[in-house]
Amino acid sequence: MLVDLKVKNFVLIDELEINFDQGLNVITGETGAGKSIIIGALDMLLVSRASTDVIRQGQEVTYIEAAYQPAQLKTINQLLVEAGIEPDSDLVLLSREIKQNGPNRCRINGQLATLNMVKSISKYLIDIHGQHEHQLLLNPAEHLHLLDDFLSEDKKNLKDEVKALYQDIKDLEDQLKNLQIDEGEKARQLDMLDFQINEIKAASLKEDEQKKLMEEYKILSNMEEIYSVTGQLVSELNGDDYEQNSLVDKLGILMGNLESVKDFSADLNNFHQAISDVFYQLQELSFDIENYHQQLEYNEARLQEIEKRLDTIHSLQRKYGKTIAEILAYLDKIENKRQLLQDREDLIIKLKKQKKELLLKYNKKAENLSRIRKKQAARLEAQIKKEFVDLALEDTVLKVDFSRKEISENGIDRIEFLISTNPGEDLKQLSRVVSGGELSRIMLALKTIIADIDKVDTLIFDEADSGVGGKTAQKMAEKMFHIAQKRQTICITHLPQIASMADAHFLIKKETKNDSTYTDIKKLDEQQRKFELARMLGGAQTTETALQHAREMLMLAQERK
After folding, report:
1. What would the pLDDT profile of 41-50 be if each residue is shown by its tens digit?
2. SS3 label, residue 405
3. Mapping DSSP to helix (H, G, I), strand (E, B) and coil, where does residue 94 land?
């Protein structure tokens, strides 16, 4: 059940906390007081995309938090573990922050989560039914989805299999469509691909050659300067054979001078050792530089060859990729494309065979799904007939009408709910027959049956009693109470009959303070309930007659319970 709801800076709400009870929780208030804001906050927490429009004027952050003690905690915790979220042994805590500037955040048990993670567990926690859902009944395109809500979980898996097969068939059809080109277009594409393949292959590219070529190009194009600098180094380091004026010779003399005194102290010995190390390193370096210098050779033909090769690589890079690796990857891609084109006829035959096989599998599963739906539709018709009796719709008959359609992700069924509201009348479309009040009762009946199947913990009805009054209102009140015996029910209502049956009654008010509008909610005690029921019965003036009527309603409600 939903235990606790905290809302801060949401639309007209400054800050409030509601502690819900088990059973029937009723929220009432004057028109425009903001009763549906509470449901809006829950909807924003669980399923809706974030919008800064909900942030209270003048504030920066909206915060919503709900604590649940779900009956299916074990199932929910398994989902949380799979999502990498630490479960709790007692409850599920959901929260959401929506900011004017900065990232919005969802949390489960205090840990960051995505909205999709929240959605994946919300179906076990709460089902929100608002006035807009009435319109689903008037749209035949939605009737199949409403019927499928009555399928058990394993049957819904069959529906998912049908959807997956349909998508595979559509993917094959897309591939076949792409292959359906005329011979002229095929020839043009092959010519283009052959040109590109031959141009790239003719270059015989190697992934590391561009770097090596650039290094060789730098040396050859700067040969004169390199030869001059290395020659000068050789001269300065080695000198000539007749004069001992090179750096190596001078360092050798210094090393010899230290040789005669190195044994006089540890410092002198260290100096001698350090100069010896430098002498031999410099001597080795001088040999390497001299060898490098002697091998230097300017080759104009090789330079021109490198320039031509680099031009070829740059030309290919402009066409096919920024690097040689990208060019070679592109070559693999177009060779595969050419092979597909070349083998187009064989591939078309292969894909058509695959499509035929998939269609056989699809039709088998879709036919099975259709049979299951028809059985479920018969059960639904019987169940809803019983619910209609409880809702003063004894003479109303609802029929699920089936017809066949082309394959779709939902199977081969087209269905529509047909209704007859009086004995002997033909079945007709709902939109041609039912009133607003009848729509409310039909949807309540459907929700009652769905709740028994889904075992969802909490049902929320947002003015689902629209267009209902009189004896029918009392029937709806009793139906709401009976639903609440099986699972927690939260109902926003304008009907005193429903409010009188509440296990917990909350009053929502809108007030203006310091030129700002606030919405607040409080739980009513028995005395306060009488005055609220009197207001609902009598309008603006709370008369003694209305108060007496309210007392009687509460007494009768207690007797019915």
Report:
1. 998 998 788 8
2. strand
3. strand
Contacts by 113-122, CB closer than 8 A, 24 or more apart: 113/83, 113/85, 115/47, 115/49, 115/50, 117/83, 117/85, 118/45, 118/46, 118/47, 118/94, 119/46, 119/47, 120/79, 120/83, 121/76, 121/79, 121/80, 121/92, 122/46, 122/47
Delimit the domains of the chain by residue range: 1-125+456-561
Confidence of residue 97 (pLDDT cuts 50, 70, 90): very high
- Sign of the CA dihedral running 514, 517, 521, 524: positive
Tokens of 116: 């999709």
Which tokens go with 11?
């639309």
Q: b or e along 401-438 (b: 16 or more beta carbons within 10 Å of the residue's beta carbon)? A: ebeeeebeebbbbbbbbbbbbeeeeeeeebeebbeebb
Distance CA(445)–CA(79), nearest Å, equals: 31
Give the separation between CA 389 and CA 527, rounded to whole angstroms.
34
Inter-CA distances, 11 with 22, 44, 171, Å = 27, 12, 45
Would you tell me how many other CB atoms lie within 10 Å of the CB of residue 331?
Answer: 20
pTM over cut 0.70: no
Rounded Cα distance, 382 and 47, in Å: 33
Residue appearing with tokens 């050789």 = 234
Instruction: Check: CB of residue 467 under 8 Å from CB of residue 443.
Output: no
pLDDT: is 128 or 272 the higher one? 272
d(CA 117, CA 67): 16
Q: Tell whether the model's pLDDT for residue 142 goes beyond 50.
A: yes
361-392 residues labelled b (16+ CB within 10 A) or e (exposed):
ebeebbeebbebbeebbeebeebbeebbebbb
Q: Can you say whether residue 85 is alpha, beta or left, with left for phi > 0 and alpha for psi between -120 and 50 degrees?
A: beta
The C-alpha angle 207, 210, 212, rounded to 5 degrees, equals 105
pLDDT, tens digit, for every residue of 99-139? 998 889 999 999 999 988 998 888 888 887 765 555 667 78
| CATH code of domain 1-125+456-561 | 3.40.50.300
- Does residue 242 carry a pLDDT above 50? no
Give the CA dihedral 154, 155, 159, 161, nearest 10 degrees. 40
- Helix, strand or coil for residue 292? helix
pLDDT at 499 over 90: yes
Please say whether the beta carbons of 351 and 172 come within 8 A.
Answer: yes
HEC string of 414-442?
EEEEEEECCCCCCCEEHHHHCCHHHHHHH
Residue 477 tokens, joined: 């009140």
Task: State mean pLDDT over 166-184.
Answer: 87
Give 3-state DSSP helix, strand, coil % of the chain, rounded to 5.
Answer: 60, 20, 20
- 3-class state of residue 128 by DSSP: strand
Instruction: Yes or no: say if 52 and 104 are a contact pair by the CB < 8 Å rule.
Output: no
Between strands 428-429 and 458-462, the pairing is unpaired
Beta bridge partners of 402: 415
Burial of 309 (0-12, 13-18, 19+ CB in 10 A): middle
3-state secondary structure 141-185: HHHHHHHHCCCCHHHHHHHHHHHHHHHHHHHHHHHHHHHCCCHHH
